[in-house]
Amino acid sequence: MRPLSITNKSVTRESLLQMAEKIPGAWMGIRIAALLLLLEGWKSSQVARLFGLTRWSVVRWIQGANERGMLAVEAKKQPGRPCRLEEQVQRALERDLGKSPRVLGIKRNRWDGVVVVEYLECIHGVRLKVRQAQRWIRRLGFSLRQPIYRYAQATAEGVEEFRKTVKKTPDDQKE
Question: What is the pTM of this model?
Answer without folding.
Answer: 0.44
